[in-house]
Amino acid sequence: MIPLYNEADVIAEVIAGLRPHFEHVVCVDDGSRDGSAAIAARAGAQLVQHPVNLGQGAALQTGISFALTHPECEYIVTFDADGQHRVQDALDMLELARAEDLAVVFGSRFLDDRTNPGWIKKVILKTAVWVTNLTTSLRLTDAHNGLRVIRRDAAEQIELKQDRMAHATEIVLELGRTGLPWKEHPVELLYTDYSKAKGQSVLNSVNILVDLVVR
To answer: How much is the average pLDDT of 111-138?
Structure first.
């Protein structure tokens, strides 16, 4: 399940990488203005649309609710639209969830040294981890990673109300409250020329800081 907002340049490639491995790829288009929705549909994704931009938290909640309307849905894998996540990491996390009967597997870029986010972003992300661990029952090493595997019984207990970056802490809080088994799994985040050109790394860091202050 992919929250999607103005990623027309890369979303077809992201979907193409997922489709050989995942029968159901769902994009929740959050009011994109660049044709992302049409591109995602042509690439073979199922499409759910917000008529206006509501934020990534709202897109995640819409996607979770959509998935749960399908009785055959056992797991939801949340996956970013910008090309920074690796399909193999998602597959490995899903395999771990099944093998160890886990309700949640969180991706973490800080469990190995493959990812280099830069020192500014790393400091901000580590601060986010510290705040999240203070305010939730879980102890994570990476609190703002969009790659997650969520089993149906855990997903049924999620009701996100934070629409922007604060949803990342909120979803950890709600999953922790379930008391269901969880683990982290090492993943590599690909900071591509595309994401750097958009200024996405710095912008997300600023958003995380603002949401932490508000929280």
So the answer is: 67
